[in-house]
Write a sequence for this structure.
């Protein structure tokens, strides 16, 4: 039996591919490979999505987190509140600026940062200068409540929207609530490039300016370093052209992703549930089921031709390379959920037959 993959990046439709090939030919003709008109157009298009905020396209989502933390003034000795179940991207960026992650437990029904746990942590840990709220799996976190907790204490709020491009809360896009937001255009993302890319979205022009300097060697003017710790992090014109095409299809593709996950949700049996929502708070980046019998379900789904994965199998405070670098943490909900999550196939190019096959396999668990 043919196995349905978790994702299949080879299913770009022919007209999109033709548009991209035309744009690439244009880029080659002009010989303008970086910081050209496609990058400018992409930044403008994204700015329109984020209520007119300033957008700087950078090399990838990991750099975007690093640059955002640096640009808002996070440095050695500062604490950065984050969750431990979101793949470690924020923890890695915090360590890279010399700060330390401080782990906050999650709500097991949503897998997102728990507001109550964050409040407690902010009261207990005065070193916390920033909170990074990752809208995990494409599901918006409790951004309004977390924003007001941060505002009361003068703590910076960064939204990591790598997985939640297009999601909204009360009609406003996630990424437009915090002081800064970060994006990743890794190919599997809802807004995915044909390579690496990322962006930083800033509410404050001074933060935008600082991100721009830090992403371009720390230069104030050409060849003059005015900010230490600068890096080289730029998107290339070809990726920007791909993303302009992809952006035009994003909302429709998010609708398709949401519809796929809604089918799965309707097929849940026993104690199983999906970490999803049927409103626009969710854009179906990953279809993650919670199950009390993961090993058994993996086998039964594989026998029914359904691939599965785990996002993510190791909590940040248990990563072997970070032992001694990140604080020990008592995170009962995080630990509980990590043993029970299972990712199911979900991508806009899935055929109706494939969705039916996965849904039937879930219904028979
Ligand atoms: C939530 C989250 N943040 C950050 C990143 C890092 O992005 P990149 O792979 O573009 O560096 C990713 C994914 O890769 C992600 O899923």
């Amino acid at each position: 039996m043919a196995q349905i993959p978790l994702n299949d990046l080879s299913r770009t439709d022919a007209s999109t591919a033709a548009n991209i090939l035309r744009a690439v030919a244009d880029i080659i003709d002009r010989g303008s490979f970086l910081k050209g008109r496609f990058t400018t157009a992409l930044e403008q298009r994204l700015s329109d999505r984020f209520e007119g905020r300033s957008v700087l396209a950078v090399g990838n989502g990991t750099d975007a987190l690093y640059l955002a933390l640096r640009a808002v003034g996070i440095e050695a000795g500062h604490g950065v509140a984050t969750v431990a179940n979101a793949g470690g991207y924020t923890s890695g960026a915090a360590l890279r600026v010399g700060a330390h992650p401080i782990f906050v437990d999650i709500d097991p029904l949503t897998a997102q940062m728990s507001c109550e746990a964050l409040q407690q942590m902010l009261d207990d840990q005065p070193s916390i200068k920033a909170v990074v709220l990752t809208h995990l799996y494409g599901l918006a976190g409790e951004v309004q409540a977390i924003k007001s907790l941060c505002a009361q204490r003068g703590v910076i709020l960064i939204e990591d929207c790598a997985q939640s491009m297009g999601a909204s809360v009360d009609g406003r896009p996630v990424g437009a609530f915090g002081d800064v937001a970060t994006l990743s255009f890794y190919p599997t993302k809802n807004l995915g490039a044909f390579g690496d890319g990322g962006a930083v979205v800033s509410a404050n022009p001074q933060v935008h300016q600082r991100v721009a300097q830090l992403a371009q060697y720390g230069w104030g003017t050409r060849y003059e370093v005015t900010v230490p710790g600068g890096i080289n992090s730029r998107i290339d014109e070809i990726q920007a052209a791909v993303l302009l095409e992809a952006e035009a299809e994003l909302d429709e593709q998010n609708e398709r992703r949401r519809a796929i996950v809604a089918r799965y949700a309707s097929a849940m049996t026993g104690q199983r549930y999906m970490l999803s929502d049927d409103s626009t708070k969710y854009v179906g980046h990953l279809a993650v089921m919670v199950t009390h019998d993961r090993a058994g379900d993996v086998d039964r789904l594989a026998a029914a031709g359904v691939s599965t994965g785990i996002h993510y199998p190791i909590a940040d405070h248990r990563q072997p390379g970070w032992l001694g670098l990140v604080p020990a943490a008592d995170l009962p909900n995080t630990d509980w959920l990590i043993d029970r999550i299972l990712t199911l196939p979900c991508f806009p190019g899935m055929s109706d037959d494939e969705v039916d096959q996965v849904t039937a396999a879930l219904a028979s668990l």
About this structure: The chain has a mean pLDDT of 97. The pocket of pyridoxal-5'-phosphate is lined by residues 60-62, 86-87, 89, 134, 160, 162-163, 184, 186, 196, 198 (CB under 6 Å). The chain has two domains: 14-104+111-243, 247-363.
